[in-house]
Design goal:
It catalyses: Hydrolysis of DNA containing ring-opened 7-methylguanine residues, releasing 2,6-diamino-4-hydroxy-5-(N-methyl)formamidopyrimidine. GO terms for molecular function: 8-oxo-7,8-dihydroguanine DNA N-glycosylase activity; damaged DNA binding; DNA-(apurinic or apyrimidinic site) endonuclease activity; lyase activity; zinc ion binding. InterPro entries: FPG_cat, FPG_N, H2TH_FPG, Ribosomal_uS13-like_H2TH, Znf_DNA_glyclase/AP_lyase. Pfam families: Fapy_DNA_glyco, H2TH. The protein is α+β, with helices and mostly antiparallel strands and about 300 residues long. It has 2 domains: about 140 residues, MutM-like, N-terminal (N-terminal domain of MutM-like DNA repair proteins, Alpha-Beta Barrel); about 140 residues, Helicase, Ruva Protein, domain 3 (Orthogonal Bundle), CATH 1.10.8. Helix content is about 30%, strand content about 20%. It has 9 helices and 10 strands. The chain has a 4-stranded antiparallel sheet, covered by helices on one side. Strands 2-3-4-8 form a 4-stranded antiparallel sheet, with helices on one face. It has a two-stranded antiparallel sheet with strand order 9-10. Helix 1 runs parallel beside helix 6, helix 3 packs across helix 6 and helix 5 crosses helix 6. It is elongated, with a radius of gyration of 21 Å.
C-alpha cells in the first residue's frame, strides 16, 4: 500500500511533470472509482495543472480553474506516467486501468507533436477500493476532512503525540499508528518499521509511560523522515522497489533481523498481516497468531 513517503515522492515527481501542462481529457474506465459527479470529470478538460501535493495517503493535483483532482490509491493503486499516446483500452472496467489523463503537447514540443502523454491510474486488485474525486477543495473529500495531523509536520510535537496515545487508552499501538483519524499517512508497512525501531510490541497498549512515548516518537520521526529522504527524486516507476529495499522487518518473514539476527515473524489477520522481530520487540516471545492457532499450526 502506498503510504506517506511514497505518495510524497509521487506528488513531487508528478508536480515536475505536470505543472503547466493542459489536460486534453480524463477518461474514467472503472466507473466505481469516481466518487463525485459535481463538478463532473469533464470539467478538467482544457485546464492546466498548477501543482501536486499530498494529504495523508491522498494525492492532490490542482488545476488553474481552482479544481482539485484527489486520488486515494488504497491498497494496490498506483499512478504510472505514460510517455506517448495511449493504446485503445480493452473495455470499461477491464484490467487494472481505473482512469487515464491525456495531455496536450507541451509548450516546448515540436510543431508536429501530437501530444497524448500523461498518466494512468491503475489498481492491481480484485476488490476495488481506489477512489477518485473532483472537488473545489480537498476538505470536501470525507477521508481527508477526518484525517489526523501529519506526523512530520511542525505541529506534531511529542506532547501532541502523547495526548493522542493517552486518548487511545488500552488500544493496541499497531492499530493506533494506522488509524488515519488519529495520525495521517502511516499504514501497515511503516507502522511495522516504526515499532521495530522503537523496540516495542505491536500489541503494546497505546497509553504508556513518558519514556516509552519519547522512544516511539523518535522512532516515528526517524523512520518516516528517512523514508521520505530515500524516496526523494526517485521516479514513480522505482518507488515501490525503493520502499521494499528500505524495510527491515515488513515483508521479510523468515529472514534474519538486521539488528539482532533473530528470525522475522509474521502475524496473520483476516485481511492483512504484519511482521515483527521477537528478539527486538517482545523479549524473544512470539506473539499469538489467532488465525494459525485455529488451524492448529505451531510456530
Amino acid at each position: 500500500m502506498p503510504e506517506l513517503p511514497e505518495v510524497e515522492a509521487l506528488a513531487a515527481d508528478l508536480g515536475e511533470r505536470l505543472t503547466g501542462r493542459t489536460i486534453r481529457r480524463v477518461d474514467v474506465t472503472e466507473i466505481a472509482a469516481l466518487k463525485t459527479f459535481d463538478p463532473p470529470i469533464d470539467a478538467l478538460r482544457g485546464t492546466a495543472f498548477t501543482g501536486a501535493g499530498r494529504r495523508g495517503k491522498h494525492l492532490v493535483l490542482t488545476v488553474d480553474s481552482g479544481l482539485h483532482l484527489v486520488i486515494h490509491l488504497a491498497r494496490s493503486g498506483w499512478v504510472r506516467w505514460r510517455e506517448a499516446s495511449p493504446r485503445p483500452t480493452a473495455g470499461r472496467g477491464r484490467g487494472p486501468l481505473a482512469a487515464r489523463a491525456v495531455l496536450e503537447p507541451a509548450a516546448h514540443a515540436d510543431d508536429d507533436a501530437l501530444g497524448g502523454d500523461g498518466f494512468d491510474v491503475t489498481e492491481q486488485a480484485s476488490h476495488k477500493r481506489l477512489a477518485i474525486h473532483v472537488v473545489t477543495h480537498p476538505e470536501q473529500v470525507m477521508s481527508i476532512a477526518t484525517l489526523g495531523p501529519e506526523p512530520l509536520g511542525e505541529e506534531f510535537t511529542e506532547q501532541r503525540f502523547a495526548a493522542i496515545l493517552a486518548h487511545a487508552g488500552r488500544a493496541q499501538i499497531k492499530g493506533v499508528l494506522r488509524d488515519q483519524r488519529r495520525i495521517a499517512g502511516i499504514g501497515n508497512a511503516y507502522s511495522d518499521e516504526i515499532l521495530h525501531a522503537a523496540r516495542m510490541s505491536p500489541f503494546h497498549p497505546a497509553s504508556m509511560p513518558a519514556d516509552d512515548v519519547a522512544r516511539l516518537y523518535a522512532a516515528l520521526r526517524e523512520v518516516l523522515g528517512g523514508a521520505v529522504e530515500r524516496a526523494r527524486g526517485v521516479s514513480a516507476s522505482s518507488l515501490k522497489a525503493e520502499k521494499r529495499q528500505g524495510m527491515r522487518v515488513h515483508g521479510r518473514k523468515g529472514e534474519a533481523c538486521p539488528v539482532c539476527g533473530d528470525t522475522v515473524r509474521q502475524v496473520i489477520y483476516a485481511d492483512s498481516t504484519f511482521e515483527y522481530c521477537a528478539g527486538c520487540q517482545t523479549g524473544g516471545k512470539p506473539l499469538a497468531d489467532r488465525v494459525l492457532s485455529r488451524l492448529g499450526v505451531r510456530r
